[in-house]
Design the sequence.
């Protein structure tokens, strides 16, 4: 069967990947959003996924010969509850039938209404799970922070863009991890603390194999100091 994918602004959604329910790739849209797939008999649901879009999970009934799909953009929602985020997403989702009709009038779709079945999928359960985990991690880190004193030695794991010698990854707390689990480490000594913000001021002792690295716009080197937020990030305490 063949169909087309556009976005909620009624623009072509190119190169969207199509998966079966087990996330095995079964097709891909071309540069104009058109696709052709052979639907496996055992597949009830298929997934449309593209960079910058929310994944769309749909069911194609037997009488649906031309599946035409509208993808919603994946937005970043700052400082909002999971309930409010889903309320805003649901408001956009409820316009799906009208958007399909507008795509038909513009000549993007061949049908004036969707023939696929598609349900709203809330983010709230997953966001609540993540929030609960982060809260637990923050509490554990706060307890660890209380045990630290000026003069204590520690190690901080990080990821690195080696082409630019730039720190670009910070690791979440890991209770069972050791320094052997990380490729790059900064070794340092605590020279200052901000207990309200759970921030450490660290003097660098070693950061093998580099003499200097960029960190948030600053150049770090041996004997230089930098501030490190311990609230959500890993610290290996010696």
Sequence:
């Amino acid at each position: 069967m063949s169909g087309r994918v556009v976005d909620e602004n009624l623009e072509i959604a190119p190169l969207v990947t199509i998966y079966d329910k087990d996330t095995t790739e079964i097709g891909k849209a071309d540069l104009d959003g058109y696709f052709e797939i052979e639907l496996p008999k055992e597949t009830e649901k298929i997934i449309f996924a593209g960079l910058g879009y929310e994944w769309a999970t749909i069911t194609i009934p037997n009488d649906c010969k031309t599946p035409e799909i509208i993808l919603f953009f994946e937005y970043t929602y700052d400082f909002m509850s999971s309930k409010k985020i889903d309320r805003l997403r649901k408001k956009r989702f409820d316009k799906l039938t009208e958007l399909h009709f507008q795509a038909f009038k513009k000549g993007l779709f061949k049908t004036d209404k969707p023939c696929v079945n598609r349900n709203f999928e809330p983010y709230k359960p997953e966001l609540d799970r993540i929030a609960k985990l982060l809260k637990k991690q923050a509490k554990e880190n706060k307890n660890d922070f209380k045990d630290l004193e000026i003069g204590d030695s520690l190690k901080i794991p990080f990821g690195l863009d080696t082409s630019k010698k730039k720190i670009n990854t910070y690791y979440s707390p890991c209770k069972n991890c050791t320094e052997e689990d990380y490729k790059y480490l900064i070794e340092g000594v605590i020279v200052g603390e901000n207990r309200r913000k759970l921030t450490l001021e660290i003097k660098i002792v070693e950061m093998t194999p580099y003499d200097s690295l960029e960190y948030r716009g600053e150049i770090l080197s041996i004997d230089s100091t930098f501030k490190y937020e311990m609230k959500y990030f890993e610290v290996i305490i010696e």
User: Anything to note?
Assistant: The helical segments are 82-93, 96-105, 124-147. The two ends are 61 Å apart (CA to CA). The first strand starts at residue 2 and ends at 7.
